[in-house]
């Protein structure tokens, strides 16, 4: 056994005879004939008459796992902020301005439930307000959203502007009115 662990060549290594017989075509088509025939005996293992050639035997894998560098580069994986933002800022304000009306709602991101809604298209506001899209209408919608959110125990919300959207004008008035009514924007 100590001879197997030494740095000298072991009699258990494959001989050049194995390479020769492996390359030759089999004479029979049976399954057992596809294996190379090795002529081994107890005497040849304990005392080899012809030592095997020093050939490097390299095993090449057909499939290897992706390297750590490749596995780390996951283009479709979301960032930590993208994955946790829904739980850190669960209530989202959504404001929509059409030519005739102003619509605003507060939604819970995780469950997609609507917490509060205010629109100038409602019967009571449609008949009470002289204009449904001016600055006064924006203030009324902001106050309604703040009151209804407080009734639902929501005291903090966030607003994510769309691309190339500025918080100014009518949108700024709605958000400022909500802030003045005691809602915190995070």
Task: Describe the fold and architecture.
- The chain has 186 residues and is α+β, with helices and mostly antiparallel strands.
- The chain is 35% helix and 13% strand.
- A three-stranded antiparallel β-sheet has the order 1-2-3, with helices on one face. It has a two-stranded parallel sheet with strand order 4-5.
- Helix 7 runs parallel beside helix 8.
- The radius of gyration is 39 Å and the shape is rod-shaped.
Strand order of the largest sheet: 1-2-3
Please state the structural category.
Answer: alpha+beta
Number of domains: 2
Order of helices and strands: HHHHHEEEHHEHE
Rg for CA atoms: 39 Å
CATH hierarchy: architecture of the largest domain: 2-Layer Sandwich
Instruction: Describe the largest sheet.
Output: 3 strands, antiparallel
Give the end-to-end Cα distance, rounded to a whole number of Å. Answer: 72 Å
CATH superfamily of the largest domain: Ribosomal protein S11/S14
Low-confidence stretches: none
Q: Strand share of the residues?
A: 5-15%
CATH fold field value of the largest domain? Nucleotidyltransferase, domain 5
The total count of helices amounts to: 8
Oligomer: single chain
Binned, the helix content reads: 25-40%
Shape: rod-shaped
Determine and state the CATH class of the largest domain: Alpha Beta
Main location: mitochondrion
Subcellular location: Mitochondrion
Keywords: Mitochondrion, Ribonucleoprotein, Ribosomal protein
Family: Belongs to the universal ribosomal protein uL18 family.
């Amino acid at each position: 056994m100590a001879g197997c662990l030494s740095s000298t060549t072991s009699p258990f290594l494959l001989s050049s005879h194995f390479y020769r017989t492996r390359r030759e075509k089999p004479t029979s088509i049976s399954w057992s004939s596809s294996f190379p025939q090795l002529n081994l005996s107890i005497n040849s293992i304990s005392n080899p008459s012809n030592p095997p050639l020093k050939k490097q035997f390299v095993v090449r894998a057909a499939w290897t796992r992706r390297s750590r560098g490749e596995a780390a580069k996951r283009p479709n994986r979301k960032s930590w902020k993208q994955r946790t933002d829904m739980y850190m800022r669960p209530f989202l304000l959504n404001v929509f301005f059409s030519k005739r009306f102003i619509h605003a709602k507060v939604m819970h991101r995780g469950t997609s439930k609507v917490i509060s809604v205010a629109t100038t298209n409602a019967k009571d506001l449609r008949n009470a307000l002289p204009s449904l899209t001016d600055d006064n209408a924006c203030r009324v919608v902001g106050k309604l959203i703040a009151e209804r959110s407080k009734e639902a125990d929501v005291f903090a919300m966030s607003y994510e502007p769309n691309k190339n959207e500025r918080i100014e004008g009518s949108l700024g008035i709605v958000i400022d009115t909500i802030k003045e009514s005691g809602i915190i924007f995070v």
